[in-house]
């Protein structure tokens, strides 16, 4: 942050900017504390001090095992997915000038579901190991993830292709997303209709979303993609700010609007598709995290992007911890929990007037 | 200095919106672009900084062709204020700072902040600098947008109907501001405007567009009842009031 001059206007602006950074710092601290609590809490409670020791490889071997091998990967995936989905949603809302834009509304999640269903039915991606729902498993996660990724990227490229033909207008992207979303939802329904009970259970299980299914290599890939996307978005934060003022104004400010839109959509979709293909459908995070933070830091993407990313991580950590603890040891599906907790919160925000972005 | 030569534009090859547009604007001069709705005024303005790319012609600023420049270079030479600015949840200060976008590499520099501060002080916008622009009145927002355009430090300022949504007091304030910054910053200003009397009061030269081309262009001498009637198809008289021409429609 640059320090600026001596005038009252500059001093006031410095204080204003300082408050935004303080909000981001507070979010980072809350996310860290929530992550510690999430590692500590579970069917086997581990005190936070023991968690800290276990993270350093010290303390009881059982604690190290549970903390490092079971809970830490889950928490890291929650943070990565939350950051990735929220940042992607934030950018999609900006470049499409639509407050409802997210991986779900653009058909990326539905494409991933379709791809996963294909993998489960035709490539033996899922099976049932017992009689209860917990025993349904995705026994070939790589094939399922790869198919989900290919299908969601197919959606992305169709949207981008159609949009490019129409000069990347936001309306074209949204409408193409809605059409493809419906198309793939229908395709998945048809696959389920003709599938066996086992296959159908596996498809439904996959679409629930599960942070625990990601392996360390999955987490690494998702983290690298998310970090690269976040860096790209931050480099473009002034372009997104300019787009807030309208297409012609942005062009007048030196922004290549079509290129910023197409590249932004590609990176955001790639990031969302990578996460969804590893953890399944997690609704509302990409939609609600930017909306919450608009209320606190406004539409300036210098602050909105990091704040939304952290809020996404925090929301997903809270939801996942809730899903693990509420009827422990049963772990509820995270996708259902984010929707269940997110929808009332979203309604509250609309009621309080955060839907403001819709008019801008 | 802005020189426009043989500018042509059409959305379809069969129908031209602009045909052989040729005019020039000196530094420190404000030119009003006048004409009926659909005459191509706003389109012409957008062609001058390649928001819309014209099919033919040249737009020269100090002999450098704008149409051959990259987007960022154009944004350092010209600034554009849209007819209706979109409000957003950013402060007026940040909106003006956005005018430094063509110069910002990673983050704004000390100089960028100094320029914004100076503009805010010179336009007396201190009181609204930390207010969100979507909470400003139409007149306040338009002043902020003009301030943002000034932050681009342009050689040519393009204004598309900056007073169309404003009440009389704000119309006068905004146009007085434009007149002042034209002279003080010694920049060429092209302004699309509907009100002939405001144009007479605040602009130096007048460009009438009719049937996709320039009908007449010049100083106050072209502001005659014959020219106005020919362009607008409305009978008018042009009277003198306090040594200034006033256009009075008769129908």
From TrEMBL, chain A:
InterPro entries: ABC_BtuC-like, ABC_transptr_permease_BtuC
Membrane-crossing residue ranges in chain numbering: 21-39, 75-96, 108-130, 142-162, 174-194, 214-235, 267-289, 301-318, 330-351
Pfam families in the record: FecCD
Keyword Transmembrane helix: yes
Keyword Nucleotide-binding attributed: no
Keywords: Cell membrane, Membrane, Transmembrane, Transmembrane helix, Transport
Membrane-topology descriptor: Multi-pass membrane protein
SUPFAM superfamilies recorded: ABC transporter involved in vitamin B12 uptake, BtuC (SSF81345)
CDD domains: TM_ABC_iron-siderophores_like (cd06550)
Compartments it resides in: Cell membrane
Assigned protein family: Belongs to the binding-protein-dependent transport system permease family. FecCD subfamily.
Main location: membrane
Highest classification ranks of the organism: Bacteria, Bacillati, Bacillota, Clostridia, Eubacteriales
Protein name per UniProt: Iron chelate uptake ABC transporter family permease subunit
From TrEMBL, chain B:
Entry superkingdom: Bacteria
Domain spans labelled ABC transporter: 2-236
GO terms assigned for molecular function: ATP binding
SUPFAM superfamilies given in the database record: P-loop containing nucleoside triphosphate hydrolases
One Pfam entry name: ABC_tran
Keyword tags: ATP-binding, Nucleotide-binding, Transport
Sequence similarity: Belongs to the ABC transporter superfamily.
PANTHER family: METAL TRANSPORT SYSTEM ATP-BINDING PROTEIN TM_0124-RELATED (PTHR42734), MOLYBDATE IMPORT ATP-BINDING PROTEIN MOLC (PTHR42734:SF6)
Name of the protein described by the UniProt record: ATP-binding cassette domain-containing protein
Originating organism: Acetobacterium fimetarium
Phylogenetic classification of the source organism: Bacteria, Bacillati, Bacillota, Clostridia, Eubacteriales
């Amino acid at each position: 942050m640059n320090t600026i001059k001596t005038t009252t206007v500059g001093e006031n602006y410095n204080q204003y900017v300082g408050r935004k950074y303080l909000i981001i710092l507070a979010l980072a601290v809350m996310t860290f504390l929530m992550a510690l609590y999430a590692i500590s809490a579970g069917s086997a409670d581990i005190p936070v001090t023991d968690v800290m020791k276990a993270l350093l490889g010290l303390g009881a071997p059982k604690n190290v095992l549970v903390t490092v091998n079971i809970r830490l990967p889950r928490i890291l995936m929650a943070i990565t997915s939350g950051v990735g989905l929220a940042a992607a949603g934030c950018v999609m809302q900006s470049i499409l000038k639509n407050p409802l834009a997210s991986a779900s509304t653009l058909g990326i999640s539905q494409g991933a579901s379709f791809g996963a269903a294909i993998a489960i039915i035709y490539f033996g991606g899922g099976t049932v190991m017992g009689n209860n729902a917990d025993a349904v498993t995705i026994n070939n996660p790589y094939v399922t993830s790869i198919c989900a990724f290919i299908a969601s990227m197919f959606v992305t490229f169709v949207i981008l292709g159609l949009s490019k033909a129409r000069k990347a207008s936001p309306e074209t992207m949204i409408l193409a997303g809605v059409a493809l979303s419906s198309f793939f939802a229908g395709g998945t329904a048809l696959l389920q209709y003709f599938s066996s009970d086992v296959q159908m259970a596996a498809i439904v299980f996959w679409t629930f979303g599960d942070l625990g299914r990601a392996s360390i290599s999955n987490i690494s890939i998702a983290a690298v993609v998310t970090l690269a996307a976040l860096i790209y978005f931050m480099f473009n934060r002034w372009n997104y700010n300019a787009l807030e003022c309208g297409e012609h104004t942005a062009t007048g400010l030196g922004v290549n609007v079509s290129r910023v839109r197409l590249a932004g959509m590609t990176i955001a979709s790639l990031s969302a598709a990578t996460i969804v293909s590893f953890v399944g459908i997690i609704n509302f995070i990409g939609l609600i995290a930017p909306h919450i933070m608009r209320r606190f830091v406004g539409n300036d993407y210098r602050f909105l992007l990091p704040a939304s990313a952290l809020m996404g991580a925090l929301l997903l950590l809270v939801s996942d911890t809730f899903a693990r603890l509420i009827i422990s040891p049963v772990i509820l599906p995270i996708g259902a929990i984010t929707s269940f907790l997110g929808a009332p919160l979203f309604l509250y925000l609309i009621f309080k007037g955060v839907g403001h972005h819709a008019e801008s | 200095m802005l020189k426009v030569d043989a500018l042509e534009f059409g959305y379809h090859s069969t129908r031209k919106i602009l045909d052989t547009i040729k005019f020039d604007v000196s530094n420190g001069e404000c030119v009003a672009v006048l004409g009926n709705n659909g005459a191509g005024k706003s389109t012409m303005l957008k062609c001058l900084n390649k928001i819309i790319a014209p099919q033919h012609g040249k737009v020269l600023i100090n002999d450098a062709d704008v149409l051959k420049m990259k987007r960022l270079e154009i944004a350092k030479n010209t600034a554009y204020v849209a007819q209706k600015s979109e409000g957003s949840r950013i402060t007026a200060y940040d909106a003006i700072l956005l005018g430094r976008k063509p110069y910002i590499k990673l983050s704004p520099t000390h100089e960028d902040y100094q320029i914004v501060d100076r503009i805010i002080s010179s336009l007396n916008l201190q009181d609204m600098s930390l207010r969100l622009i979507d909470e400003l009145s139409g007149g306040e927002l338009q002043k902020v947008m003009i301030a943002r355009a000034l932050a681009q430090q342009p050689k040519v300022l393009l204004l598309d109907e900056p007073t169309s949504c404003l009440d009389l007091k704000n119309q006068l304030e905004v146009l007085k501001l434009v007149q002042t910054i034209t002279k003080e910053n010694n920049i060429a200003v092209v302004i699309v405007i509907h009100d002939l009397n405001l144009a007479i009061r605040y602009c130096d030269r007048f460009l009438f567009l009719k049937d996709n081309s320039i009908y007449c262009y010049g100083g106050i001498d072209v502001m005659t009842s014959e020219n106005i009637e020919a362009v607008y198809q409305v009978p008018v008289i042009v009277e003198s009031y306090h040594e200034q021409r006033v256009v009075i429609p008769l129908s």
